[in-house]
Amino acid sequence: MDEKSADPLAEFRKVNVDGTLNLARQAAAAGVKRFIFISSIKVNGEGTGRGKPYKADDVPAPVDPYGISKLEAEQGLLALAAESGMEVVILRPVLVYGPGVKANFRSVMSWLSKGIPLPLGSIRNKRSLVALDNLVDLIVTCIDHTAAANQVFLVSDGEDLSTTELLRRMGAALGKPARLLPVPEAWLDGAACLLGKGAIAQRLCGSLQVDIEKTRRLLGWTPPVTVDDALRKTARHFQEHR
């Protein structure tokens, strides 16, 4: 959201495409049987209508350079799989949180722990998140599950939350009840646009949901960690290391 490169797509391609495919080619040459690639939900797009989640087999629609580069890496890996016989598994996680989480998630925990009032008490969006422990569990499942070969899977905690609900449950995990002011979403959107922070407003007020039915069905996988347990673990680490 604060891109400074003159050509962001070229910079993302160096790592997400060239670096990934270089490693994958070496893996195939070394006889590696399966390559698991952590992609991004940004391959699907930037947001969904509420109650209209992305599905693993939807036509990709990346918007920003990061998402485009991740899609290009996926396409290159699947082509390599067809040529080499090395199996590829592609995972597209949503926002990942857990002990040591940084960026906006950590900032919000800091604000909540200080009791700072936030104008986020009336947001009715729905967003999918994934706890780090759940993502790792799925990666482990995909290492040798026969049904995972050459498939794309979406991953989340299986419970979608509004921003308001997430903040309340995050506050409970911190032992600091969230002080949320019921400011209308339209006011937040307008203020953010005036300040040139439309992308932040989209993350706070917009919906981004994923359907993990394919992941459950093909792999027999269920997220082992609940949202509240994951939030408590995240909050405990934050309080011990701030």
Automatic annotation (TrEMBL):
Ranges that cross the membrane: none
Residue span(s) of domain NAD-dependent epimerase/dehydratase: 7-152
Superkingdom of the organism of origin: Bacteria
PANTHER family linked to this entry: BIFUNCTIONAL POLYMYXIN RESISTANCE PROTEIN ARNA, BLL5923 PROTEIN
Name used for this protein in its record: Nucleoside-diphosphate-sugar epimerase
Organism the protein comes from: Pseudomonas linyingensis
